[in-house]
């Protein structure tokens, strides 16, 4: 069945009629379409949907449990004790809650690092969202695997099972250099090469990490990864804040993709600001991610774009860097490219991953330039509809694929149940 979106504003502020068939934007302003299912685009803007390239979706159950702590305390006193109780069921309900928010935020796809990825896939496939899903590997036991070997087996089984899915791509996620020894990093890369997987890793997030890696190996993080043959075009490095110019050149040389997570970095007081101007200059593909909502605390990619733009400007004392158009591209087309999808543009032949924005709000008037509005004025609450892979998941602010109220209620109950196991009864 084809979908016809009539009389909608496009990102270049032209009125258009868009025809979607299968999962592709087939034609724009071509009168030859058959209008099977019509969406009224009046007073609406169509944008490419967001590609959120770094998150931990199931940690949505951890939103707001404890705040305003040092990362180390927060991990040791809250997150890790909670994760001792994490199982398939909690992962599923966390992914479900997070997935509902992704839809409401206009996000078509995520790159996710967590555990029990079968359950995350189940939730995403039910909701109709895309996921590049990497089981997290540690050198110590994880909630899912006693040993790294067990974790590798889980990754391989997942890679085989999900080889040919439309929405899900298997990935592998060695957590970081400080939590995986060299042997594990190399083994993870070998498995990635064998199965053609994207490798997700936290890289140079904090100054502490750089010192720790230097202390252990006498090298900075990127130098170490280069020396063990880890870097190539299938590596997606999250954060990438504390880097030297030489390290950025190395990332560019190996075509490593970077996921910038400005809100999480600011909230956890990572201290540095990702060196975006140098990444751009040397040709690193920069994408945008929210990180988990435990350190954000939402999946609002509009907010993420704005914070990205204004933190770069402020940090460099230069309002001309991180311009709205490039920031928008980072959050959409660049993300899609990094995750291996032809999406991120409202153009014929691109995947139909599209957001509809309700323009009828005071903060979106006057309507001059759609992209400037998207980066500096819009918020997730302006998302009126989402189409992913040619399927409408939400229209007129109503989620069509599941019963949202019921799922939210169940997910919240699960979150309180988990909280009770560690912190006591929720009052
Ligand atoms: Zn992360």
TrEMBL record:
Cofactor annotation remark: Binds 1 zinc ion per subunit.
Pfam family, one: Amidohydro_1
Cofactor: Zn(2+)
Record EC number: 3.5.4.28, 3.5.4.31
Binding site for Zn(2+): 54, 56, 202, 291
Family to which this protein belongs: Belongs to the metallo-dependent hydrolases superfamily. MTA/SAH deaminase family.
The protein's name in its UniProt record: 5-methylthioadenosine/S-adenosylhomocysteine deaminase
């Amino acid at each position: 069945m084809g979908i016809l979106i009539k009389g909608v504003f496009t990102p270049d502020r032209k009125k258009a009629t868009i025809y979607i068939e299968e999962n592709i934007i087939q034609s724009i302003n071509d009168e030859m379409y058959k209008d099977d299912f019509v969406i009224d685009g009046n007073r609406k803007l169509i944008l490419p949907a967001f590609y959120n390239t770094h998150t931990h979706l199931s940690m949505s159950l951890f939103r707001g449990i404890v705040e305003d702590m040092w990362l180390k305390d927060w991990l040791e006193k809250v997150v890790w004790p909670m994760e001792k109780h994490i199982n398939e069921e909690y992962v599923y309900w966390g992914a479900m809650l997070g997935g509902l928010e992704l839809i409401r935020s206009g996000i078509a796809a995520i790159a996710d690092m967590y555990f029990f990825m079968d359950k995350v896939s189940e939730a995403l496939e039910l909701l109709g969202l895309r996921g590049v899903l990497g089981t997290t590997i540690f050198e110590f036991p994880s909630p899912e695997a006693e040993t790294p070997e067990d974790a590798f087996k889980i990754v391989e089984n997942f890679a085989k099972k999900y080889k040919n899915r439309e929405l899900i791509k298997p990935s592998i996620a060695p957590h970081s250099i400080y939590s995986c020894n060299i042997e594990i990093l190399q083994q993870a890369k070998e498995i990635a090469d064998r199965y053609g997987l994207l490798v997700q890793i936290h890289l140079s997030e904090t100054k502490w990490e750089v010192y720790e890696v230097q202390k252990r190996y006498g090298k900075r993080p990127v130098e170490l990864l280069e020396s063990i043959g880890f870097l190539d075009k299938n590596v997606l490095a999250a954060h990438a804040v504390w880097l030297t110019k030489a390290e950025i050149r190395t990332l560019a040389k190996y075509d490593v993709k970077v996921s910038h997570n400005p809100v999480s970095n600011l909230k956890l007081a990572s201290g540095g600001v990702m060196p975006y101007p140098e990444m751009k200059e040397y040709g690193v593909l920069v994408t945008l991610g929210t990180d988990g909502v435990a350190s954000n605390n939402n999946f609002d990619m509009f907010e993420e774009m704005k914070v990205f733009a204004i933190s770069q400007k402020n940090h460099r004392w230069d309002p001309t860097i991180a311009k709205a158009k490039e920031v928008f591209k980072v959050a959409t087309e660049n993300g899609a490219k990094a995750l291996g999808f032809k999406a991120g543009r409202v153009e014929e032949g691109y995947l139909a991953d599209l957001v509809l924005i309700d323009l009828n709000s005071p903060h979106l008037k006057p309507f001059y330039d759609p992209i400037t509005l998207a980066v500096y004025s819009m918020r997730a609450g302006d998302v009126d509809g989402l189409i992913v892979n040619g399927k409408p998941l939400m229209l007129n602010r109503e989620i069509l694929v599941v019963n949202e109220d019921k799922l939210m209620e169940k997910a919240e109950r699960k979150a309180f149940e988990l909280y009770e196991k560690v912190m006591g009864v929720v009052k």
